[in-house]
Amino acid sequence: MQGLDQSDLTLRIGTIAAISIFSAVLLLLLGIVLLRVVRNAKDQRRRAVTEIWRPLLAQCVVEVPDSLPALNYRDHLVLLYLWNHCYESIRGDAHDNLRELARRTGTLEFAKELLHARLLRRRLLAIVTLGHLQERSIWDDLVALLQSDNAFLSLVAAKALLRIDAPAAIPLLVPVMSRRKDWSPLKVVAMFESVGANLAAESIAKAACQAPPEISSRLIRHLGATQSQHALPPLRAMLQAGSPSDDVLAACLFLFGECSDPRDVAIIRSHLSHPTWFVRLQAASALGKVGTEEDEALLIALLDDAHWWVRYRAAEALSNLPWMTSERLSQLYSTLTTVESQEHLVPFLAQSNVKKVGAIPTAAPSRPAA
Predict the structure, then answer these.
(1) How far is Cα of residue 23 from the mean position of the Cα atoms in its chain?
(2) With CB atoms counted within 10 Å of each terminal CB, which end of the chain scores lower, N or C?
(3) pLDDT band with cut points at 50, 70 and 90 for residue 357
(4) Which is nearest to 105 in space by CA: 46, 164, 49?
(5) Looking at 133, 159, 183, which one is the last position of a domain?
(6) 0.70 cut: is pTM over it?
(7) What CA–CA distances, in Å, run from 227 to 202, 261, 264, 293, 366?
């Protein structure tokens, strides 16, 4: 009898477990179906709002429509995405028309309410919108967001500040850029696109001069994308004022080569014999872009450098000199006395279609193991 009771108890437990699992699976399926229904309803509503407002936003390129549809909360959210996309896609006087449309639809007040929303994506949407609207009343809120633990939120706030008043925002942003290690230099460069390459270059260069070496070197290297001479004076002053780290020095030499200002030739030459190999490397590369004929001998001397990469960049720099021809490069090859110095000219001779059977090896120099 006791065995039967135990068997019956086991059967009941198994039945309850099976029913529980089945119920959980059924609830999960119902939840998935419900979420799908809700999502489809949202998508349909979003498409409906888009179909209504996209032609109206396109009309703003010419003029603001006379009559505008009413908006509820969710429809207004969709409009904000469409409005910002349209604002960033056009240029010129059409921006004024879009701002007028935003005023007539109550977008300014709506965006201010979203600025304090709990959802991060809505706060970001509000910041971008208010930045485009150049709303000065939220200036202090945006300045406070620069210190946010969320790097993306702080970057969006910085970009909005630049859109509202770039001259006033830059003195605030320079020390922040020099401190925040979580701001990607690429994002920083992109952030300044709206204010122009020259102002961006000068601001980033000033931030680099105040930043720790690991941040400074990254900011300086990304300045090469701006090709702006306005970045150079702060960096020249920094080099004259003291001895920066090797990473920062190498980054400065890289930028001097990218900008190719003849005024930097002297400082580039002075670092061809620097004790750190990657500083010599950047000096050689830069000299190949901005050097004069008298620098040819300096680059030839680097072909006997102790480090493989310095020798290679020196050979590359020689081949890039404006007056260097394939014949002159071939003559230079024949005057070199060491295998180490000769081997690095081979690929650049090949690029110039200068090959002499028996005189010039056909193999490229072997790269040292990492």
Answers:
(1) 50
(2) C
(3) very low
(4) 49
(5) 133
(6) no
(7) 11, 11, 15, 24, 33
**Number of structural domains, the chain?**
2
- Per-residue model confidence as pLDDT tens digits over 187-233: 887 888 778 778 888 888 888 888 888 888 888 887 887 778 889 99
Half-sphere exposure of 97 (CA within 13 A, CB side): 17
Q: How far is CA 48 from CA 36, 53, 64, 287, in A?
A: 18, 9, 21, 60
**What is the residue whose two structure tokens read 């750190």?**
276
DSSP 8-class letter at 363: S
Quickly count: other Cβ atoms within 10 Å of residue 347's Cβ.
16
Q: Which domain covers residue 103, as residue numbers?
A: 42-133
Could you read off the pLDDT of 111-128 as tens digits, one per residue?
999 998 889 999 999 999
Domain closes at, from 81, 105, 133? 133
Phi-psi category of 106—alpha, beta or left, where left has phi over 0 and alpha has psi -120 to 50? Answer: left
How many CA atoms, within 13 angstroms, populate the side-chain half-sphere of residue 286?
31
Q: 190: buried, middle or exposed (CB in 10 Å: 19+, 13-18, 0-12)?
A: middle
For residues 193 and 262, give the distance between their C-alpha atoms in angstroms, rounded to a whole number: 27
- Residue 210, in any domain of the structure: no
